[in-house]
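Progress note, sequence design subtask.
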């Protein structure tokens, strides 16, 4: 058992949810609280041989897990969801400790993630086939069956919900799954694996691999026994995984970087747009792949909108996620802080103006990982902040004259994950929604994720979908049977 940070342990109703891996420990991985900078504990890290052993365990479990049948898998997933619901508070505390987001936000993430488990508990029963009778002597059956052993590589910004929306459809489809959580946030994944076993789920079909991302990723991509890989993370790493998986021709599902425009037209509901951009941009301190990265305001309303937005952004409270009333927690590490600073400096050097924020904040008793929620006005498309994903609480404001210019600015990116726009013109809503080159479009809403709907992007934001029946299809193969009668 790992040695727990006593402050973290004291916050938990069930300290036993802080689990270790079942594999041989090669080295200790420090898990750091990004708010305080304290080492919470050292999680056991596995090496290449342990990963290969885990793949063999999963492969041996594949047939039995498939044969268990949809109804039995469904009951297990329902039991699992119930246990997650019972332990929401502890899971939220663990997440805040290792990731930094405010506890209420962490709790909301856990609750959102468990809805994916409930959805796929039912979706397990709805994997349908088809039948054709072309003539009297021949019948054709099309059936779907489990893809095989699957791997999931999950990010640090949503260590619970992203993991659950990957493993739930895999398990529902009949696939054993190996999870590589981000090195910064392994404790949430280990706790979720412990609850799976407590619900009666076989340990062999949900294994967590904590350790060096490159070493573990290399084994997973090279193994012919791993038939599918689902990854959420940067476009740069996604490209590497595609190359590494080519030799074994794996099924890939990649949710990569984003650079979401948030467009407000002059005919929009200003109150709704203001609330939408605040929630969309500053959730998780801007560390989300679907965050608004560029605020595009029609010229005629730009001054009025900014006059209302600046005090609202300035009023957001930044601090330790365990403190009451906190809206924004810390950024994950020093590299994240440096990137936000680089984007601010570049924008100011190119002529942007600082409307609020703009630098680090000192939170007494904590590390230097807090950045003030920041608004830049008079931004231009050539600035780094208008071209790169910032992943922090920084929002540049650009203006546009008409609909055509708004679409040109919005689509001028290699990414295509999420886009948002506000308008009350019904005809415009239809036109703009169709012409935005993004996998997901929020129309008069800043919300982008639901268990029943597909989540994913186009262009260099990846391919494949999570959520709804689309999500389980990523873990199913189609087999055609030609029967002579």
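Output:
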């Amino acid at each position: 058992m790992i040695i727990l940070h006593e402050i973290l342990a004291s916050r938990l109703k069930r300290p036993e949810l802080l689990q270790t891996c079942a594999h041989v420990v090669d080295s200790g991985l420090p898990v750091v609280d990004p708010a305080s900078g304290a080492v919470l504990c050292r999680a056991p890290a596995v090496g290449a041989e342990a990963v290969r052993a885990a793949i063999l365990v999963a492969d041996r479990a594949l047939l039995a897990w498939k044969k268990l049948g949809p109804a039995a898998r469904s009951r297990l997933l329902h039991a699992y969801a119930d246990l997650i619901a019972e332990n929401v508070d502890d899971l939220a505390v663990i997440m805040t400790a290792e990731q930094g987001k405010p506890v209420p936000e962490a709790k909301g993430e856990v609750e959102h993630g468990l809805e994916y488990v409930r959805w796929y508990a039912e979706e397990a029963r709805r994997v349908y086939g088809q039948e054709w009778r072309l003539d009297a002597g021949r019948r054709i059956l099309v059936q779907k069956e489990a893809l095989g052993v699957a791997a999931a590589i999950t990010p640090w910004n949503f260590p619970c919900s992203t993991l659950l929306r990957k493993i739930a459809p895999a398990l529902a489809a009949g696939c054993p799954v190996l999870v590589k959580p981000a090195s910064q946030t392994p404790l949430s994944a280990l706790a979720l694996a412990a609850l799976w076993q407590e619900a009666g789920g076989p340990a062999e079909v949900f294994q967590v691999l904590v350790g060096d991302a490159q070493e573990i990723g290399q084994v997973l991509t090279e193994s012919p026994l791993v038939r599918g890989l689902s990854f959420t993370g940067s476009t740069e790493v996604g490209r590497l995984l595609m190359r590494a998986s080519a030799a074994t021709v794996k099924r890939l599902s990649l949710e990569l970087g984003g650079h979401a425009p948030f467009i407000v037209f002059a005919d929009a509901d200003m109150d709704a747009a203001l609330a939408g951009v605040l929630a969309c941009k500053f959730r998780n301190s801007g560390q989300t792949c679907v965050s608004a990265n560029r605020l595009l305001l029609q010229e005629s309303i730009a001054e009025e909108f900014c006059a209302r937005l600046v005090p609202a952004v300035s009023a957001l409270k930044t601090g330790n996620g365990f403190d009451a009333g906190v809206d924004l927690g810390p950024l994950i590490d020093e590299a994240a802080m440096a990137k936000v600073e680089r984007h601010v400096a570049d924008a100011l050097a190119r002529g942007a103006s600082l409307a609020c924020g703009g630098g680090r904040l000192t939170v007494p008793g904590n590390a230097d990982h807090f950045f003030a929620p920041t608004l830049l006005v008079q931004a231009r498309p050539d600035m780094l902040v208008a071209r790169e994903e910032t992943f922090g609480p920084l929002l540049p404001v650009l203006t546009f004259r008409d609909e055509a210019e708004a679409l040109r600015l919005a689509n001028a990116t290699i990414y295509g994950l999420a886009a948002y726009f506000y308008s009350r013109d019904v005809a415009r809503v239809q036109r703009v929604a169709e012409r935005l080159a993004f996998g997901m479009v929020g129309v008069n809403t800043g919300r982008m994720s639901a268990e029943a709907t597909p989540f994913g992007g186009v262009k260099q934001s990846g391919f494949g979908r999570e959520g709804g029946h689309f999500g389980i299809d990523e873990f199913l193969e189609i087999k055609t049977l030609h029967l002579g009668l």
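The longest strand covers residues 138-146. Work on this subtask will continue into the next period as scheduled.
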